[in-house]
Amino acid sequence: MTDPLAGRPVPPSRLVHVPRLVAAYYTDRPDPSEPSHRVAFGTSGHRGSSFDRSFNEDHVIAVTAAVLEVRREEGVDGPLVLGTDTHALSEPAFRTALSVLAAAEVPVLVQDGHGFVPTPVVSHAILTRNARPGARADGIVLTPSHNPPGDGGFKYDPPHGGPAGTEVTKRIERRANEILASGTDAVPRLPFARAARAATTHEVDLIGPYVDDLGAVLDMEAIAASGLRLGVDPMGGAAIDLWPRLAERWGLDLTVVNDRVDPAFGFMRLDGDGVVRMDCSSPHAMAGLIELADRFDVAFGNDPDVDRHGIVAGGGLMNPNHFLAAAIDHLFRARDGWRPDAAVGKTLVTSSIVDRIADDLGRPLREVPVGFKWFVDGLLDGSTGFAAEESAGASFLRRDGTVWTTDKDGIVLALAAAELTAVRGEDPAARYRALAARHGAPVYRRDQAPATEAQKRVLAELSASDVHASELAGQTIERILTRAPANDAPIGGLKVVTRDGWFAARPSGTEAIYKIYAESFLGDDHLERLTEEARALVRAAFEAAGA
Q: Which domain range does residue 496 map to?
């Protein structure tokens, strides 16, 4: 149910109490015997809140110490790039992590003045350093991404520059929980003032090289020459200082519509459920920018760590799947430096219009489980030209077909909307309408429902034999997937496909819920039927397992 205040300014009563949140980070200690207090890496690292004792100083000490052990075991002896966003818990976590890293005498690169560093800038810095001979770099980003202001997060990027794979995150998670159980007081640390001045702590400009390099991945000259009026809402996030530098460097007519940084994010509009959430793919959270749409030819927003994008074109916020379709079609037609066999990459829950566009382009489709880590290898070797997640996350190759970032990059996706408009003379919304007229206009839905741990295990372990139906929403079932077509990796759930629709059901890795994704090329009524039958199938699986 949509909250009655959705899309409206946040009332003071719904703002997080930042002093209490930060105090709890330092004073409330997790109980290692309580599962909800333990370190748990999902698809995007460990996240939690100090109020829930799931993201406190002990967690950051333990996870940082575990990362140190893993990088030693892997022979990573170069600098570690340390990035942070604007969430209230990110600064305390930055201070804690640096105190552990400095005590271990690890070379650490931080932004000049300890400024904010977006996720894609960390990935770019790791990759550009590792392209040179010498010791390998890796990175940490302290961010819960688009999560509410009361949350904190910790992500580790190995030398490949993208999200750590499951094997690495399990090692970090296991060792961090062992450290929590034995006590973090044994982990060596320096006082922050000493850590900041340590010989191993290097303040450098991480953002400048990223901004200067954008011409290698985008046609920045065409964007500048077009004279497009561009608007951007950084949502008070880590790109707050990057966008003005970018506009000046490349001569863009770009307006930052909101330049506030506030750890309570009091300038936001409430999301659909009434929560303060910096989700640039939500029309409720993006309502402020949407209201300014007529001032710009194209406008865009980013979440706090800048790994997501929201595109305002045609008078409204584009559905993330719609923009991804338009971007894929444009970029593959515009990039003659990409390998002829470079694939279109998508997660299993991204719109099937991408499949149809890939087929029209004559490009292979690489369909993987949820999680951007599955795209890293293909982006590194150039075999995947564009990698997309339905939740408004994507990245793509440089114009010469080499790797740009191996993590999601909300900046280059936003600028891709500007490039498309400049080069093609139509905005991404108009481009999508043309694609939908050619390939079909799908309707898409994502729901969630409560689930116990037992039910989540049942859902994660479903097999094709657990589906006894031969039809779904009136059509013959063509495929039942529990493993991804591109790499045969388990999808942690189930996807059922017919000619004109599909659904996928999977448990959340970090919350007590499961999610159902569904899409139909036959309209809203068919989508509703798909969703209802998906829920019934999941309920039947739970009942059969006694969960």
A: 443-544
Q: Is residue 122 part of a domain?
A: yes
- Alpha carbons 349 and 426: distance in angstroms, whole number: 28
pTM, entire model: 0.96
**Is 182 a residue of the active site?**
no
| DSSP assigned state of 123 | H
Q: End-to-end alpha-carbon separation of the chain, Å?
A: 26
120 occurs within a structural domain: yes
Helix (H, G, I), strand (E, B) or coil at 512: coil
Kindly report the CATH number assigned to the domain that includes residue 534: 3.30.310.50
Please check whether residue 375 lies inside any domain of the structure: no
In angstroms, the Cα distances linking 422 to 168, 228, 404, 425, 543 are: 42, 7, 22, 6, 55
Q: What tens-digit pLDDT sequence spans the chain (547 residues)?
A: 799 999 999 999 999 999 999 999 999 999 999 999 999 998 779 999 999 999 999 999 999 999 999 999 999 999 999 999 999 999 999 999 999 999 999 999 999 999 999 999 999 999 999 999 988 999 999 999 999 999 999 999 999 999 999 999 999 999 999 999 999 999 999 999 999 999 999 999 999 999 999 999 999 999 999 999 999 999 999 999 999 999 999 999 999 999 999 999 999 999 999 999 999 999 999 999 999 999 999 999 999 999 999 999 999 999 999 999 999 999 999 999 999 999 999 999 999 999 999 999 999 999 999 999 999 999 999 999 999 999 899 999 999 999 999 999 999 999 999 999 999 999 999 999 999 999 999 999 998 888 998 999 999 988 888 888 899 999 999 999 999 999 999 999 999 999 999 999 999 876 788 999 999 999 999 999 999 999 998 888 898 888 8
Query: How many structural domains is the chain composed of?
Result: 2
Amino acid at 501: G
CATH number of residue 108's parent domain:
3.40.120.10
Q: Which of 54, 145, 226, 352 is catalytic?
A: 145
